[in-house]
Design a protein that fits this description.
By secondary structure, this protein is of the alpha+beta class. It has a single domain, classed as Thiol Ester Dehydrase, Chain A, CATH 3.10.129. It is about 30% helix and about 35% strand. The chain contains 5 helices and 6 strands; from the N terminus they run H-H-E-E-H-H-E-E-E-E-H. The protein has a 6-stranded antiparallel sheet with strand order 1-2-4-5-6-3. The longest helix is centred in the middle third of the chain and has 14 residues. It is globular. The two termini are about 25 Å apart. The C terminus is likely disordered.
Length: about 160
């Protein structure tokens, strides 16, 4: 894969690939990056019935929020180098209030980078802009290149 000289173009290509992934389809999520290129932004819209908690609650299930946090924390590696693979190594979450409504947003950023390890944070906000959950995580930036090949293999039909 020839490297694009423009990081913004690389981030947009990265977002486009993930926006067509099965995970973001399941989450009803849409990935973008801040204009400054220092934040990962995901809007989950709409919240589906399968995203809701058990026992008839209107709140989004904690497992769905955990998957959202895992995604946005892991994607912070693209802020450093959108041409390399990455993986979330550790994830810590606090649930401060229920996430209710028809949509929510998640935002993640890098607190500190040390070599191939990133220390990142994230917040999930409800439609009123109130923080409902927070997360911190460790992300490993791989030496292996990232490409669209993995996505094409995931969606290929036999």
């Amino acid at each position: 894969m020839p490297e694009e000289p423009n990081k913004r173009a690389q981030l947009e290509r990265y977002a486009h690939a993930f926006n067509t992934s099965e995970l973001l389809k399941y989450l009803s999520g849409h990935l973008t990056f801040s204009e400054a290129g220092d934040r990962v932004l995901v809007r989950v819209d709409p919240v589906l019935p399968t995203h809701r908690g058990g026992m008839g609650t209107a709140a989004v299930n904690g497992g769905v929020l955990a998957a959202t946090f895992d995604f946005v924390i892991g994607i912070t590696a693209a802020l450093v180098d959108p041409t390399r693979r990455s993986a979330t190594m550790q994830l810590n979450m606090t649930f401060e209030r229920p996430v209710v409504g028809d949509w929510y947003t998640a935002e993640a950023w890098i607190d500190r980078a040390g070599g191939s390890t990133l220390f990142s944070s994230a917040a999930i906000k409800d439609p009123q802009g109130e923080i409902c959950s927070r997360a911190t995580g460790l992300v490993r930036l791989s030496k292996a290149p990232w490409s669209l090949d993995w996505q094409q293999s995931q969606t290929a039909k036999p």
